[in-house]
Amino acid sequence: MTELTLGKALGAGLRQAMRDDDKVVLLGEDIGKLGGVFRITDGLLDEFGAARVIDTPLAESGIVGTAVGLAFRGYRPVVEIQFDGFVYPAFDQIVAQVAKLHYRTQGRVKMPITIRIPWAGGIGAAEHHSESPEAYFVHTAGLRVIAVSNPEDAYRSLRQAIGSDDPVIFFEPKRLYHHKGDVDLEAPLADAAPMGLARVVRTGNDATLITYGAMVSTALQAADAAADEGVSLEVIDLRSLSPVDYDSVAASVRKTGRVVVAHEASREAGVAAEVIASITERCFEYLESAPLRVTGHDVPYPPAKLEKYHLPDLDRLLDAVDRVLDRPNSLTGAGA
Question: Which residues are catalytic?
Answer without folding.
Answer: 129
